[in-house]
Amino acid sequence: MTKMRITLTPGHPIMIVDDEESILLAIDTTLQMAGYNHTITCRDSRRVMEILSAQMIECMLLDLNMPHLHGERLLDRIAREFPEIPVIIVTGAVDVETAVRCIKSGAFDYIVKPVEEDRLITAVKRAASFQELKRENLSLRRHILGDSLEKPEAFREIITRNKKMLVLFQYIEAIARTSQPVLIRGETGVGKELVARTLHTLSGLKGDFVAVNAAGLDDNVFSDTLFGHARGAFTGADRVRNGLIEQAAGGTLFLDEIGDLNHASQVKLLRLLQEGEYFRLGEDAPRKTDARIVAATNQNLSALQTEGKFRKDLNYRLRTHRIYIPPLRDRIDDVPLLADHFLDQAAKSLGKKSPTPPEALYPLLKSYSFPGNIRELQSMIFDAVSRHRSGVLSLDAFKSHIGGENGADAGPTSLPHGPEEGSPITFSSCLPTIKQATALLVAEAMQRADGNQSIAARMLGISQQALSKRLKKLAPENN
Questions:
Q1: pLDDT for 426 beyond 70
Q2: The whole model's pTM is what?
Q3: Residue 406 pLDDT
Q4: Where are the extended beta strands (E) located within 298-420?
Q5: Of 280, 216, 270, which is closest to residue 244 (Cα–Cα)?
Q6: Could you identify which of 25, 242, 416, 455 might form a hypothetical disulfide with 449, taking C-beta atoms 3.0 to 4.6 angstroms apart as the criterion?
């Protein structure tokens, strides 16, 4: 029989200080019902400073009128010695002067008894969010000032030595332990799920990583998959089904292709993000979840929002933290590293000895724009290794793939280093002559092709013989 996993929320306890047992119990029960199950209570105000010295707390709910040590005196001491702790005053004192004194002394909020549950929960939520924001800012500052990773082993599955990716890794480390949603953007094939799994690894969450692909799911299928259903919820529902959100309890729920969600499903997801609540199909009572939400898309959600296809409020909720994974054409220096990795991977998968790559392989691959990104490179190499028999790996499979992607009449191979929009060439105020422009273009192609004339000719859309003639003509000018 598996033990039920209980996740404590928030990570550090909420401390409740009041000399009346009934008040302690009432506040604690209210917090527990709202999902805040990590609390400690204290009836003796003289013990508060001792407790604070022994452990970290998220925030404090403090009564004023207590024996031994009055709440206002205690607030002054906490503000001096533990200024990072948000203190919410909960008292029967209704006069404005007392409230003003407490706020001036550093109180985070002021609540009058008898306590309204919604008012109390709102104050605690604000305090917890404030604490999380402070921790995140400190983490970001530490990573920005540093130039290394705290846990490089967590990124071992992501093959790169690109500087943009290192900066991205530092940001991922900085936000990994926050509970806020994360939106991962990037083209198809860049490795969005791999980044999401790395986030989960770094988060320290004890629950599972659960992935859901939202593409093509209508609202009923999405709701049933994510939230589950009660027995008798619909024809054929002869038993209870636990949704994937329950499997992700205490862990991470990864929602891929989030831009494809229909409006009805978007409303349900918004409630999940805002309230941490969801409804099983066929049930009226909401259920709570503490799963962290990580979403991914290859679409522009802001553009979808403008077109009325994506909710504005959901877009804002999802993008608390944003990660953009650059396409492979913008980190072309990673191609040789990735190619070697996939060559070994493909050989092991096919039960073959890893083939020797020809010298021209890397310049050829680096001359290609990879619309399918890393996934396309992996497929290209797997195809080439599956055809390989012995000796040096043939370039035929790669040339065939690149030629097929560019089209027979497409002209030159796409250049991976140019701007994504507008003209691929930027001119200065003084235009070069045709002869000068040709020389510059040929030199650039040869540099990108690492001196390989065959690949440079392909990039320029001319034959190797034509390029060779041009190089001979240009040779005297270069001497």
A1: no
A2: 0.66
A3: 55
A4: 321-324
A5: 280
A6: 455
Q: How many CB atoms lie within 10 A of CB 244?
A: 19
SS3 375: helix
354 residue type, one letter: S
pLDDT at 304 over 70: yes
**CATH number of the domain where residue 366 is located:** 1.10.8.60
Residue 274 CB burial class (10 angstroms; 0-12, 13-18, ≥19)? exposed
Same domain, 284 and 182: yes
User: What are the φ and ψ backbone dihedral angles of 390, each rounded to 5 degrees?
Assistant: -160, 170
Tell me how many helices (H) and strands (E) the chain has. Answer: 19, 14
Using DSSP bridges, classify how beta strands 228-229 and 241-242 pair: parallel, antiparallel or unpaired. Answer: antiparallel
> Position of tokens 């005053």?
89
Same domain, 128 and 41: yes
What is the domain-level CATH number for residue 99? 3.40.50.2300
Q: Which two tokens stand for residue 17?
A: 């200080």
At residue 151's C-alpha, the angle toward residues 147 and 153, to 5°, is 115
pLDDT at 157: 92
58 found inside a domain:
yes
pLDDT(203) > 60: yes
Of the given ranges (112-116, 295-299, 336-340), which has the lowest mean pLDDT? 112-116
Domain of 235, in residue numbers: 147-326
Quick one: tokens of 216?
């093509």
* Bond from prior residue into 10 cis (ω within 30 degrees of 0): yes
Is residue 13 reached through a cis peptide bond, with omega within 30 degrees of 0 on the bond before it? no
pLDDT tier at 424 (50, 70, 90 boundaries)? Answer: low
CA distances from 282 to 27, 118, 170, 223, 472 (A): 32, 27, 44, 11, 78
Residues 160 and 305 placed together within one structural domain of the fold? yes
In angstroms, the CA 108 to CA 85 distance is: 9
Do the domain assignments include residue 174?
yes
Please check whether residue 307 is in contact with residue 263, taking contact to mean a CB–CB distance below 8 angstroms. Answer: no
Contact 311, 262 (CB under 8 A): no
Higher pLDDT, 429 or 167: 167
Residues 169-190: b if buried by 16+ CB within 10 A, e if exposed: bbbbbbbbbbbbbbbbbbbebb
State the alpha helices, DSSP H only, in 152-252: 163-175, 192-203, 219-227, 244-247
Last residue within a domain, chosen from 326, 344, 362: 326
Query: Are 288 and 363 in a shared domain?
Result: no
The span from the CA of 113 to the CA of 93, in Å, is 8
